[in-house]
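pinned: reference chain
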Amino acid sequence: MNLIVNSGFVFDIFKLALYIACSYLALFVYARRFQTRWVTRLANKRFAILTLLTLLIVAVKVFEDVVSKESGPVDVALLRYLQQIVPPEMGAFFNLITLTGAAKFLVPATLMLSILFYVTQHRGQAILLAASMATGAALTYTVKLLVGRSRPELWSSTWYWGSSFPSGHTLSTAAFATALTICTAQIWPKSRYLALPLAVAWVALMGLSRLVLGVHWPTDVLAAICVGVFIPLAISLLVSAKQHPSAS
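pinned: its structure tokens
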């Protein structure tokens, strides 16, 4: 805990909250002055827009810390702590969880569900799911190549291709789970009460599995969750704005 406090954790939280508030205020002022038709949508979608700003700003902050190598001590401390508190017997469970975030599972699932949505006349949902996964994959590989961060070597772990930042399994799972939750909620509104908790649990377990297995740093997972959730939310809001221009 002292390590986190000493690294400026509390001050970083304050700065992030200030950035988010200022960003939303600047967007609202811009809309009032130059895009008055946006004002109603900004008010109606306040929570969604604040969520997007939060995800984006946190992801950018983590990216900056990783590139400048400022997150290293906290990353190591958190991984060491997880290694101490998670029983070795849980390894098989987390291996199973991590398989659900692999391409060999998510790619066929995305194709099948996108086709199912399309043939059942839910074409917007089909596009949202497919576009979210394609964008997430492209962004993952691009950032991995640009950052080139080494994977943890704190203990023996399974070898994975590519650099550590961001966690591809976590980002893909977050994008898939978020997009699918949005799609099912649009088709069957009451399903969100079940879909949302399941999505949160899946993404959380996926991120935790990557840490427990020792193949990613905590900041890899945090950035992946932020970006993975951001992509389908942003696509959904953009599509909604185009479909209902009078409300925006």
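why pinned: The chain is about 75% helix and 0% strand. Residues 1-7 have pLDDT under 50 and may be disordered.
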